[in-house]
Amino acid sequence: MSGNGQYAPITGPRLGPMQPSMPSHDQCEQARLARDARFDGLFFTAVRSTGIYCRPVCPAPAPRRENVSYYPTAAAAAAAGYRPCLRCRPELSPDDANFMQDHTLHRALALLDEGILQERPAAALADAMELSARQLQRLFVARLGATPAQLHATRRLLLAKQLLTETALPVTEIALAAGFNSLRRFNGAFLEGCGMPPSALRRQHGAVPGGEPVLRLAYRPPLDFAAMLGFLRKRAIPGIERIDEGSYQRVIVANGRASLIRVSADPKRPELRLQLGTSDARAIPAIVARVRRVFDLDADLATVHACLDHEPLLARGIAERPGLRIPGGWDGFEIAARAVLGQQVSVAAATTLARRLVDRFGEHLPGLPEGLDRQFPTPAALAEAPLEGIGLPRTRAATLRAVARACAEGRLDFSRAQTLEQFVRNATALPGIGPWTAHYMALRALGMPDAFPAGDLVLQQVLGEGRRLSERATEARSQAWRPWRAYAVLHLWHLSEERVKATALPP
């Protein structure tokens, strides 16, 4: 950070101040010249001769070394006066999940994701973080190269740019989706940030077919989409989810409106394709964010693997399935309920119980196709429900009711603006919820990369290689894999699939 409080870009061989996750200048240089997709989103290249900033994978001819600077985020490049490239489209870049390791920064980014600045001033974020506005701004500028307000503004404009390019949505709806209540303000902000009005960008890219919007969601390869679908398929809840050989479909309710989404892999690019069934443009940002979390699209697997592959078992797992990622959940309470249903039973049995739960207590959603027309029960619907009627033992029914009441009353929440320790502490305060269930919830509902259910029988067996390790020994073994233990869990579960098929798989 320079003396005037602005971020100093990397233009030489040294790292930026307080920027440990950004590659060095030489790494950035090599990555952009190689168009290495593994670095997509980890830095942005600003070209002084053209005034634009690009992704490392930009297909345009590489500019001369002396004409470029490197920034940690798109917002940092935008704050320095650069415009997003129209060819490589920085709006498609995955985020840098390495920032999750700085809890203060991660919490602030999570609050931004949850919309804290959508209708409130920048001071609201500082208040929520219990920091002064100056402290928060210094943190953001030092680590991200931009203030919270600049980061929020850049995200809004890049979302609008994607919707203008990839959908036929009216400009007025795109403005609403990007958080602008005034079309005039939207047009002015877009012109300033992108160098052209929204209508000119749309004309330049040509007409997009009408119908349901389809968005491109990029990731840093590899992604084992088949393995992700396989995991989700075994746990799919009939009436809510459907997984075939190449796609994931799901019922969602956003802003009170029910619709379907469909996610599939792009056969040529490191991207997923998200087909949206909603007509509410304002719901699109939250839907995109959830899909990215369900498929863990912002993971930096190169960093994860560098931490894990010192363990021979994990090195074998990584070699066999290098693209394994954390399979997230669409709704926190849904995952929590599924975790309780899966206590001490097989995956198939837990799925049967989940189907009964939805049939008995879930809402039917008219207007959706048969077989994908149910909503998972709300916490309020289950807080006092006679759950024994679906075949749950009395104690487990009481546990699920306790979880439902805690969620309904706000004592247990699934905000990502909390630490793993905070979530586990709140969850295990409930009757019937132990560390295993709490860590499983944290892994799938919150995507916490260090979640580790040490009491998991499968983990204990595969790590014991013929004998079952104790929970304490399993926990001790995992310390070398921090802060990426959740990825170790996925690889160990994969290694155990042939050895342990019938019982004790995670719910």
UniProtKB/TrEMBL annotation:
<dbReference type="Pfam" id="PF12833">
    <property type="entry name" value="HTH_18"/>
</dbReference>
<keyword id="KW-0238">DNA-binding</keyword>
<feature type="domain" description="HTH araC/xylS-type">
    <location>
        <begin position="106"/>
        <end position="204"/>
    </location>
</feature>
<dbReference type="GO" id="GO:0006285">
    <property type="term" value="P:base-excision repair, AP site formation"/>
</dbReference>
<dbReference type="GO" id="GO:0005737">
    <property type="term" value="C:cytoplasm"/>
</dbReference>
<dbReference type="GO" id="GO:0008168">
    <property type="term" value="F:methyltransferase activity"/>
</dbReference>
<feature type="region of interest" description="Disordered">
    <location>
        <begin position="1"/>
        <end position="28"/>
    </location>
</feature>
<dbReference type="GO" id="GO:0003700">
    <property type="term" value="F:DNA-binding transcription factor activity"/>
</dbReference>
<dbReference type="GO" id="GO:0008725">
    <property type="term" value="F:DNA-3-methyladenine glycosylase activity"/>
</dbReference>
<dbReference type="InterPro" id="IPR023170">
    <property type="entry name" value="HhH_base_excis_C"/>
</dbReference>
<protein>
    <recommendedName>
        <fullName>DNA-3-methyladenine glycosylase II</fullName>
        <ecNumber>3.2.2.21</ecNumber>
    </recommendedName>
</protein>
<dbReference type="InterPro" id="IPR051912">
    <property type="entry name" value="Alkylbase_DNA_Glycosylase/TA"/>
</dbReference>
<dbReference type="InterPro" id="IPR037046">
    <property type="entry name" value="AlkA_N_sf"/>
</dbReference>
<dbReference type="GO" id="GO:0032131">
    <property type="term" value="F:alkylated DNA binding"/>
</dbReference>
<keyword id="KW-0808">Transferase</keyword>
<dbReference type="GO" id="GO:0032993">
    <property type="term" value="C:protein-DNA complex"/>
</dbReference>
<dbReference type="InterPro" id="IPR035451">
    <property type="entry name" value="Ada-like_dom_sf"/>
</dbReference>
<dbReference type="Pfam" id="PF06029">
    <property type="entry name" value="AlkA_N"/>
</dbReference>
<dbReference type="InterPro" id="IPR010316">
    <property type="entry name" value="AlkA_N"/>
</dbReference>
<dbReference type="Pfam" id="PF00730">
    <property type="entry name" value="HhH-GPD"/>
</dbReference>
<keyword id="KW-0489">Methyltransferase</keyword>
<keyword id="KW-0804">Transcription</keyword>
<keyword id="KW-0805">Transcription regulation</keyword>
<keyword id="KW-0862">Zinc</keyword>
<keyword id="KW-0234">DNA repair</keyword>
<dbReference type="InterPro" id="IPR011257">
    <property type="entry name" value="DNA_glycosylase"/>
</dbReference>
<dbReference type="GO" id="GO:0008270">
    <property type="term" value="F:zinc ion binding"/>
</dbReference>
<keyword id="KW-0479">Metal-binding</keyword>
<dbReference type="InterPro" id="IPR004026">
    <property type="entry name" value="Ada_DNA_repair_Zn-bd"/>
</dbReference>
<dbReference type="InterPro" id="IPR018060">
    <property type="entry name" value="HTH_AraC"/>
</dbReference>
<dbReference type="GO" id="GO:0043916">
    <property type="term" value="F:DNA-7-methylguanine glycosylase activity"/>
</dbReference>
<keyword id="KW-0010">Activator</keyword>
<dbReference type="InterPro" id="IPR018062">
    <property type="entry name" value="HTH_AraC-typ_CS"/>
</dbReference>
<dbReference type="GO" id="GO:0006307">
    <property type="term" value="P:DNA alkylation repair"/>
</dbReference>
<dbReference type="GO" id="GO:0043565">
    <property type="term" value="F:sequence-specific DNA binding"/>
</dbReference>
<dbReference type="GO" id="GO:0032259">
    <property type="term" value="P:methylation"/>
</dbReference>
<dbReference type="InterPro" id="IPR003265">
    <property type="entry name" value="HhH-GPD_domain"/>
</dbReference>
<dbReference type="Pfam" id="PF02805">
    <property type="entry name" value="Ada_Zn_binding"/>
</dbReference>
<dbReference type="InterPro" id="IPR009057">
    <property type="entry name" value="Homeodomain-like_sf"/>
</dbReference>
<keyword id="KW-0227">DNA damage</keyword>
